[in-house]
Amino acid sequence: MAEKIKYRDVYGIFIPDAEWAQFLDDVSTIKQRSTELEKVNGEQQYKLKKLARIIQRKDRQLAKFNNGESHV
User: Fold this and answer.
1) Nearest Cα residue to 60 out of 71, 47, 51, 49
2) Which top-rank group of organisms is this from (predicted)?
């Protein structure tokens, strides 16, 4: 367990090597999950933008069709 220490008028925290290694593993896992989540969010945003463009195009086609213009 981490302990607060004072050495030559400097305060700090002492963390045993085993706990430090576990801490680094935990941080690495969190970073990896964060990166994966960012990737998923980016893919979702891309898909939403693509869907919005499709809807806009279909709305324009419907508007042209309803106004009596030919549609392609």
Assistant:
1) 71
2) Bacteria
